Amino acid sequence: MTGRSNRSPRRRTVVAMFMVLAVIGAFVIRLVDIQVVNAKEHIAQSLELGLSGSQETYGSRGAIVDENGATLAGSIVLYDAQLDPKLVGPIDREINGEKVTVPWETISAEIGAVTGQSAEEIQGIVAAALAENPDSRYAMLTRGLTTAQYRELADMNIPYFAAFPHPARTYPDGAVGGNLVGFVGSDGTPLAGLEVSQNGCLASTDGEIRYQRGGDGVIIPGTMTEIPAVDGGTLQLTINRDLNWYLQQLIAEQTQNTGALSGAIFVVEVKTGAIRAAAEYPTVDPNAPTSVDESDRASRIFRNTFEPGSTFKALSAAMLVDSGTANPFSVVHVPFRQTFDNGASVRDDLQHPDYDYTLNGVLVNSSNVGISTFAGMMSDQARFDYLTRFGIGQGTDVDFLGEANGLVRDPSQWDNQTKYNTSYGQGLTTTIPELANAYQAIANGGLKLPLRLVESCTAADGTVTTPDNGEPAQVISPEAARQVTDMLENVATKGSVSEKVGIAGYRLALKTGTAEKVDPGAGTYKVGSYFTTIAGFAPADDPQYVVVVTLDEPSTIKSSSANAPAFREAMTQVLKTYRIMPSNSASPDLPTFG
């Protein structure tokens, strides 16, 4: 009897154990069924019941940097602050060891001292939210708080205050390169310049954190998954930030001193086609684009066209020499006014007796009659073809947002006057980049290189891509380019602005231009209004940089002499910036008269 009674409790223990294990096993099987076998079905059910949640994460928009990596545009974190109106009221604080109740009126004033709002304004925000919905749990306090402001508010330990971060755009150097960089809207949408055209490089991809919540709103451990955000790429430009800053100050001063409507300085590296500066005035600070007129928010350098005037005489000389039609020593008879066989009439700017000018003399003294006489020795089609090869009217490979093309009509549309006017830069239009590219070709032995503003895009994963630039084109022969350069040097040493543009130790090659402006409303030239230009390169014996300086309607000086001080200072700064060695030989002295 004793042995049987001992076995009975053990049997009951074993049975109980098996029952417990059976229950646990059932739970395990059910959990496997819920979390593994039929997980998708249950997740779907939780979504229907509102038990899943997500939170968006933000990638940073890529930076825009200059040739040396200096930041022109970058991303920062700002905070949007909100209040919970239902919880708004006095809060308890411990001051000097004593518990003190601080009223809402005081709290609202403390908040306003940080956000820049008045206590009444903040109280009004809360009151408006409660008036609309007495159970409101949300009222937007303000947007765009800095990290410092956010920390100051967070340290106040206000239970009904919350702030959420979001990326924002900043331009640390303000207006430096602003006409190129462009800007974004308050919602991050790119609106102008490279911010728009290079958005494929700069744009980030937002991510998301997904999770499951219990009925009490608490996130269920182990249910959190993340789709990571991807930052935008870094866009490297060819421009030099410091040089662009200097030239922006320079052209602003010269534009104001001459009473011009606007001005620009454009710098191109001869041997690469890289744009090293594109400075203009007026311009825009991308941090506050609405603070300037809409017409000042884009780049006039790329978007405006103009008649280039006598700067085109260099191109006419280049085609004459390259085609074998003339050389720097060729001579034509040049009266002050000339009526050609087709009835067209051309005159020079200043009264003078009849001269026998060399082609070099025509450039030095900028004779309209002389260059027209030489140009008449070539067919209209041949001249048109050369202009096309120089890129006039063709735009550039930069393909800047809104970039304009110059206009050169087909020779079949040239009237008797246009046949000659086009030789000295009237009756057609160009842009600053087109003109600079043509001078780059002359400076580079006749080889025109595609202009470049974007160096590369480096993606977040380190992948580097470079833009697909066009192919180089041999516009004129190296020998023709050398002869034209020699003549442009004579312009620099003997021309009307020679005493104003010289740089000690350096040989310069340049040409001036003073072009009449068309009145769009009247369809005729505006009386007394000119677009003035100086285009040139240095050192002439080993060309490194092209500089183009323009002024739109200068009023104190109405000729290209208005551009001379800025051209000299700009070229001097370019040569200093890139440590270009002085010339070690003298400029050639070609004859002016036959």
TrEMBL record:
GO terms for molecular function: penicillin binding. Residues 263-571 form the Penicillin-binding protein transpeptidase domain. Its main location: membrane. Pfam families: PBP_dimer, Transpeptidase. It is found in: Membrane. One of its GO terms (cellular component) is plasma membrane. This is Penicillin-binding protein 2.
